[in-house]
Amino acid sequence: MKSQSDTVSKILKNYDLCEYCTGRIISKIVGKPSSKFLGKKYLKKLGKSDHKTCYICKNIFDSLEFVLSNIFEKSSHFDFKTFHLGITLKPSFLERDDYLKSKFKIKGIENIKFGIAKELAKKISRRTNSKRITDDPDLFIQANFKDESCILRAKPMFVYGRYNKKIRKLPQKQGLCRSCNGIGCHNCDFKGIENLQSIEGKISNLFIKKFDCNQVKINWIGGEDQSSLVLGKGRPFFAKILNPKRRNRILRKTSDLEGVYLSELKKLSIQPKGSIPFKSEVSITIDTKKPISSNQLKKLKILENAKIQDFSRDKRNTNKRIYKVGYKKLGKTSFILDLFADGGISIKSLIQQSDLVPNVSELLENQCECKKFDFKNIVV
Ligand SMILES: [Zn+2]
Ligand SMILES: [Zn+2]
């Protein structure tokens, strides 16, 4: 016992420490949990003033308010129930802390950074009615004590939905600005994207406004041509919402975006993994070079249950199949082909000369051109 109180008085006689650092440094020696009150008690016991500048932290605990008000101001724009806190400190704080600990052979106590974070987190929790957690927090707060700044970042969220496309001439994806290739320039208003309408642009804008986020990344379950329609229940997609400030906003199940209609919208708590297999019901309008007869079209029956092989890359078998086939002659040199097939088969490559086997042009011994194709339905 004697040597313990000896060590404590030796430390406090040689170094001016604040209540927080005293409590932390001596906690293990006196066998009590680290606290401001523990420090205060021992400083009083040894007749030390707590108004001097702390050797380790330079009284940083007295100036937490500025960083805190910064955090409170910024975090008021975010919806969050949990947060994680990271701290950036000048290395000299940790160096002095380590020096003192090694000089008095103190082991197994929290370091100065941990001590500051604990104190800061306590105040943030109390004020914002939230909880500090390390695993998957709603909000990540990085407080920088070098310049008293802070950076806040919200955990991404995910939305599932389906879209119906009711107008032609609308691409699925937003292209990069052709002038700057995505860097940002005067032509694109420094957004880096083409100023044209797209399904991606329409969906992104909806979520950017709804969740007050920076960016939206969409994972498509297949794609279509810009002139294709998407009918039936629509094409499914997943959207990743980056840095959403307002994650608690209510998302209605449907949304009408002029030409694009969204349905089945819902927030997901976790990110969907990997790619999702799907099947498409597609209706293709085809023009032929030579006149075609109904009798010749019967050859298309072979496509039913056919496996698609792609000879373009490493003679790879894609494991994709056609399940059902329907056809109808439209005119002398045109017909409609209806397919129910695995998703991800290139429709144009299937119709026109390509490395896909089977291939409609080859099958009919007639050069075919895919005029348009519409998705009647997509099945996940
Ligand atoms: Zn201190
Ligand atoms: Zn640009």
| Number of helices, where a helix is a run of at least 4 consecutive DSSP H or I residues | 10
What ions, cofactors and ligands are bound?
A: zinc ion
The backbone outline, from C-alpha atoms, is elongated
Distance between the termini: 71 Å
Give the domain tally: 3
SS strand fraction: 25-35%
Q: Would you count the extended β strands for me?
A: 15
Give the strand order, joined by hyphens, for the main sheet. 14-11-12-13-10-15
Helical content (DSSP H or I, runs of 4+): 25-40%
Stretches where pLDDT is under 50 for at least 5 consecutive residues are none
Q: Structural class, please?
A: alpha+beta
Mean pLDDT: 90
The major pleated sheet works out as:
6 strands, antiparallel
Order of H and E elements: HHHHEHHEEEEHEEEEEHEEEHEHE
Alpha-carbon Rg, integer? 33 Å
Task: Specify the oligomeric state.
Answer: single chain
